[in-house]
Amino acid sequence: MDQLNSDLLRTFLAIAEAGSVTDGAARIHRSQSAASLQIKRLEEVVGQAVFDRHGRGVILTAAGETLLPVARDVARTLDATLREMKSDDVRGKLRLGIPDDQSKGILARIVAEFVQSHPRVELEVTCATSTGFEAALEQGALDLAIFEVAHPTPGAEVLRKERTRWMMTRHQDLLSRDVIPVALFDRDCWWRDAALASLEALGRPYRITYSSQSVAGVAAAIEAGVAIGLLGETSQTAELERIGAQFGFGKTPVSHLILGRAGDDRTPALEAMQVAVRNAFS
Fold it and tell me: What pLDDT was estimated at residue 225?
């Protein structure tokens, strides 16, 4: 008798969430051909097609839409059971600083992986702008933190590097104005200093029309056509375009996302959280 097994459902789930066989196969570390064979087998079991081809990707059929929540429930239940059975006896308290402008999906995975694997650790999370995190580590107010710097110190653990870019909405030519409207981060952020230095080097009149503590706030102002602004490359959307040398702007700095800890203490809880963070950004 044919049966649905978790391996077929995980492959289906990866492809459904990725929107293509190639990207879905990469998520579960399989070849495209192996993933395609598994989907073919799944469709033989359920007796219906679960995907329709759509350009270079795939979309769910009605049968696929029915199967999707089942696949998610099965994967979630199996993963939670395994984590519970493998959970360790790590105890203590851990204070973690997480920047609120990073991907919510990545940050959710960090917390979820850690809490489910180490349920006896009391986790205190500060989710805010990361400008004060480095000082908080030095003062002992945080045990571990993720923060951005322009120039990492020797030996710093860099999780990710990202080039900053000037951007503006595609729907308005703000650079044709006599005075360029600019959106900046608040005064505590080094991105603000980098943006101001770039504007001074440009040599054109500008006016600060908008300030925000968060990437989301600055990006929203740019998308709304209120101003141009300096963002990381990963913040670019279909509504934004990069502006650079063609308009006279010089090279902008690289942002380094750092994983830092307070002092040299290496408690089991701290080591476990470092692994969770590295896994999320790997």
Answer: 94
Residue 140 scores a pLDDT above 80: yes
Mean pLDDT of 118-138: 86
Q: For Cα atoms 275, 276, 279, give the angle at the middle one, nearest 5 degrees.
A: 85
pLDDT bin (cut points 50, 70, 90) of residue 186 is confident
DSSP three-state, residue 151: coil
Residue 182: which residues within 8 A CB-CB, separation 6 or more? 195, 199, 206, 207, 208, 209, 210, 227, 228, 229
- Assess whether pLDDT exceeds 60 at residue 103: no
The helix (run of H) or strand (run of E) holding residue 240 is strand 240-243
> Given the DSSP bridges, would you call strands 228-232 and 180-185 parallel, antiparallel or unpaired?
parallel
Say if strands 180-185 and 240-243 run parallel, antiparallel, or are unpaired.
Answer: unpaired
Give the E-state strand segments of 104-156 in sequence order: 121-128, 144-149
Task: Calculate ∠ Cα 144-149-151, nearest 5°.
Answer: 120
Could you give the CA distance from residue 88 to residue 119 in angstroms, rounded to a whole number? 8
Q: Please give the pLDDT value at position 216.
A: 83
In order of start, what are the domains of the chain with their CATH numbers? 6-86 (1.10.10.10), 92-150+257-281 (3.40.190.10), 161-252 (3.40.190.10)
Beta-carbon contacts of residue 55 (< 8 Å; ≥ 6 apart): none
